[in-house]
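U., I forgot to send this yesterday:
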Amino acid sequence: MKTRLCCLSEEHFNTCVAHKLWGANSTHPKKWDIGDILIFKVDNKLAGVARVIGEAYIDDTKIWDNGLFFYRVELDFERVLTPENRIAFDGEIKDSFISLWGKSYGWVILNKYPLPLSIRDLILSKFKMNA
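Result:
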């Protein structure tokens, strides 16, 4: 089981939650396994946690208003925080990324690179969850 951090807009996040689905134009979802965890970062705050519950597939049904995102996986959202209750990325979490990858840690998020257990556990503890 791997954990990844996904950065997206509020609108895209809400659509993912409503449809219980992640979509991308890259092939990243093809590398994900059932049981993998996605942590969602919206406006520099952590907004939700979901588990992958299906194999990646290609679909051209329009779901999102800002793109097709035809590589898709089904999700089970375990936590969805309202905007006022979201967890700040700045501080302890961001510092853990910088300590491991330096100030250019953004490539880890952009490429949906699997997070090490120490960072996964730190983030999930903020959501009051265990892997």
